[in-house]
Specification:
183 residues; alpha/beta; Rossmann fold; six-stranded parallel sheet; 40% helix; 16% strand; FMN reductase; Flavoprotein-like_sf; oxidoreductase activity; FMN binding
Length: 183
Amino acid sequence: MDKITLVVGSTRTGSFNQQLADVVRETVGDRAAVAQLDYTDVPFMNQDIEWPTPDAVARVRGELAATDGIWIVTPEYNGLMPALVKNLLDWMSRPMLEGSAVTAVAGKPVVMSGAGGRQAAAGSLAECRRLCESIKMDVAADPVGVAIGKGYGTGVLEVSDDDRTRLAAQADALLAAMEGAGD
């Protein structure tokens, strides 16, 4: 069975983006195995510590290299993606082995979604897409942003039927890209 790895850009308890990731998992259903990446122990990117590769970086690279597709679920902080996600992608843009050009994510199918304010994480998602394209990932569909709206008062992300339809289309596109990547 194909595997999708979720990269969630918020570690906050009750995170709206974790709630969105849970909706993503439901949306994919039994069409692929879905696992969430734990990358909170990855140090800030610094070429002075690149070799030998820190254990946490090697572990995460291995997990992302072995997955069939990646789904990034990112919040928006001050119009941009959080440092946690940016740092992970910066590390993943680097070679897996010293002297090699091969990275863990080049050519890997990816989609991105995010929950945010009135702009529905548009700034973060645009930045995330640019970075994924820059590091040669295969962006399989346009990003999907979900406005938090009343959730700010309740702590519960309300995902509309329209949002669910757009997430389902994203899932379909990612799964199709994963199938095509195996050719």
